[in-house]
Each structure stands twice: as structure tokens, then as C-alpha cells.
Design brief:
mainly alpha, 76% helix, endoplasmic reticulum
């Protein structure tokens, strides 16, 4: 088993270079878009963590109780969904067949629980907005050679990172998505 490694903080000119390294994702090819997002999440995970922490701290400074409550609710819902996917066959099958819908369901349940406590705006700005920033960057940032190489090393199990473990818990590994793509292409050829 590979030991856990924290990805290095990527330089600013690599993380946010000029417009030539960004492109609109091809929404007609969802698998390619998903691969780009997963790849960038793994490669820039420390940069994304820094962005999330900055926004989280700004909102937390403005409403500390709401942020603590929001973070606790999201963490508990996430841990509950991962536990449910491991121990309940129905949830496990749903997660395997619809990984993106599973993630959206986790976010929806978190949102619903936050609305019960009256902290929806704190949730939106403190938790959802940073996730939206990360998703927008991961969707539009083109991969480079170092990015692809780093992801292949993690994909074959030579090393593990915190984001890799989270993506694995959500069934969002690139190699599984590639297998699905190969299966769909073979079915389309028949």
C-alpha cells in the first residue's frame, strides 16, 4: 500500500497562467470533461485547499457559528454517505451507477439540513462558493504533461493523496471512468 503524500503547492503561473491554458469544457463529451476535472483536482489539490480555506476564513470571520455548523453538517452528511455506500447494498449500487448524482445528493441533503438550521446563506457562501470556484477552475484548466504523469502515478497506486482518497470514496477515479468510456464506445460500434 502506498503511503499518503500531500501534493506540493503549485506555483501561481502554473495554477493560473494566461488564457491560453484555459478552455471551455466539451459538454458533449462528459467523460472527457470528468477526466479533466478529476485530473486537475488531483494535481492542484493543495492550491484548491488554499483557495477554499481563504474563502472559508473570510465567511467564517463574518459568521463563525454558521460556518462551524455548516462545516459540521457537510462533514457528517459526507461521512454518513460514505458509510452508507460501504454498508448498504442499495446505496452502494446507486453510487456505482450514478456517481455524479450521488455527489449532488450529498450536497442536496447538506443544503436541506442547513436550511432547517437557518444557515443557507452561510452554507452557500462558505462551502458551496469555494467548491464552485474549484469546479470552475478544474473544468476549464487544460492539463499539462506533469499533470497527466502525476495522475497516472496515483492511478496505479504508487502514491496516495488526500484528494485521491476523497475521489475514491466518491467513485470518481479516472481509470474507472476510462473503463466506462471504453465499454460505451464498444457498445456504440456494435
Amino acid at each position: 500500500m502506498a503511503k499518503m503524500e500531500i501534493a506540493p503547492l503549485r506555483p501561481w503561473d502554473d495554477f493560473f497562467p494566461g488564457t491560453e491554458r484555459f478552455a471551455k469544457p466539451d459538454i458533449s463529451d462528459l467523460i472527457k470533461w470528468n477526466n479533466r476535472v478529476v485530473s486537475n483536482l488531483l494535481y492542484y489539490q493543495t492550491n484548491y485547499l488554499a483557495v477554499v480555506l481563504v474563502v472559508f476564513m473570510i465567511v467564517g470571520f463574518l459568521n463563525p457559528l454558521g460556518m462551524i455548523l455548516g462545516g459540521a453538517v457537510v462533514a457528517l452528511v459526507f461521512m454518513g454517505s460514505v458509510w452508507g455506500a460501504e454498508n448498504k447494498v442499495m446505496i452502494k449500487n446507486f453510487k456505482k451507477k450514478n456517481p455524479t448524482l450521488f455527489v449532488l445528493a450529498v450536497m442536496g441533503v447538506s443544503y436541506f439540513l442547513m436550511s432547517l438550521f437557518g444557515g443557507v446563506l452561510v452554507f452557500i457562501f462558505g462551502i458551496t462558493f469555494p467548491m464552485l470556484l474549484v469546479f470552475a477552475h478544474a473544468s476549464t484548466r487544460l492539463r499539462n504533461l506533469k499533470n497527466k504523469l502525476e495522475n497516472k502515478i496515483e492511478g496505479v497506486g504508487l502514491k496516495k493523496s488526500p484528494m485521491g482518497i476523497i475521489l475514491e470514496a466518491l467513485d470518481q477515479q479516472e481509470e474507472k471512468i476510462n473503463k466506462i468510456q471504453d465499454f460505451l464506445e464498444s457498445k456504440m460500434k456494435q
